């Protein structure tokens, strides 16, 4: 597993370097259904590059990715879950706050996860048998704090709808933040910047963080308190395990 | 003015360095009215340091600051407007996304503004007779784009209330972002990361950006389309001047 983990880290860092080099490229932007749901040729290129490299090295592994049509069951075999650009709108508009996400599972068990904040050059990596780091800094497990001492990652739409009581929960904290990349927001939960992050997202958005979080005392769950299905889009919250009961008081 | 501008840049960079050195200090946190409106001993210390240095060098100038009780008329004399830590909650909780803000006026006319994103080590500076820079990078004037190609800085509360129609406006863009520092968000408007930023804020929060923005084609106004009073708390929007008419269609 050590070799595969090293391979994955290089894979993700290389993808980030590629994106930094192509930051000023003219973008071909397509809408996926709604005018705010965008994809560029670089999402596709990076997805293809990641897939080709994984397939070359591990030809019998399988891949679940944002820009692929395949939706595999995660429960069996060796499965990579990849998101070439998490936060595509930020990539297009801000040229910042986007990430490359990779997670690796064997028979449904997370082996390692990687979140690479490309512009900040911060790689969050570890999980399974590996300790969790931000670059070379070992991350400690969750440092206890109360809800009213913390910030919640939550976008304005979910707050306004008060979806599943997330708005009520946020009103019992110091407030909400929204940066437009679930992956980076999850990383900010891992470092303690955010107490929790809630989003309406797909498996490739939360797979890496769920593996990283397990090592440090965080739980990835649906807003109804279930284990995520790792299939289709769901309302997901990532929070310290010891805070789950308190959070559930506000959720419905 | 060149001397005063150089002095101000050093002042702000030194304040940022001081905050970086004291990032791990134990904080004495006080609530100012509501449990989410916080101030620390470091806000006060930095305010005092800035004030002392300005008074030593320019004894007859006057100072309007977040942590001072004085509320001066800006229209006359030499006035410094300072915010020692913009984004105090971020400073406490995230140890990131906070800024030191300084603006300087003579007889009501902005001479220069400074926004220092302390952790990113990015100093946005210029205005009046000085070109606007992010560190050593000259910032271009607003590059035209449509509302639906842009992101709006707006917190979840204002979006949910749809205050003054800000939510309606945001729904005609690619979405909202909220990082919890008006100063840094305004800087992100200046660099084109955000198309506009709206907040319910005080003069020390928007003074520096208003001066910087004038040089690059941006307007600071109230949500009712008036010039800010530079007195008390107001609903403020900072946007490209050429977009104001389009934005006003959504505001009420």
TrEMBL record, chains A, B:
<feature type="binding site">
    <location>
        <position position="85"/>
    </location>
    <ligand>
        <name>Mg(2+)</name>
    </ligand>
</feature>
<dbReference type="GO" id="GO:0008934">
    <property type="term" value="F:inositol monophosphate 1-phosphatase activity"/>
</dbReference>
<dbReference type="GO" id="GO:0006020">
    <property type="term" value="P:inositol metabolic process"/>
</dbReference>
<feature type="binding site">
    <location>
        <position position="86"/>
    </location>
    <ligand>
        <name>Mg(2+)</name>
    </ligand>
</feature>
<dbReference type="Pfam" id="PF00459">
    <property type="entry name" value="Inositol_P"/>
</dbReference>
<feature type="binding site">
    <location>
        <position position="66"/>
    </location>
    <ligand>
        <name>Mg(2+)</name>
    </ligand>
</feature>
<feature type="binding site">
    <location>
        <position position="205"/>
    </location>
    <ligand>
        <name>Mg(2+)</name>
    </ligand>
</feature>
<dbReference type="GO" id="GO:0046872">
    <property type="term" value="F:metal ion binding"/>
</dbReference>
<dbReference type="GO" id="GO:0007165">
    <property type="term" value="P:signal transduction"/>
</dbReference>
<keyword id="KW-0479">Metal-binding</keyword>
<dbReference type="InterPro" id="IPR000760">
    <property type="entry name" value="Inositol_monophosphatase-like"/>
</dbReference>
<keyword id="KW-0378">Hydrolase</keyword>
<feature type="binding site">
    <location>
        <position position="83"/>
    </location>
    <ligand>
        <name>Mg(2+)</name>
    </ligand>
</feature>
<keyword id="KW-0460">Magnesium</keyword>
<protein>
    <submittedName>
        <fullName>Inositol monophosphatase family protein</fullName>
    </submittedName>
</protein>
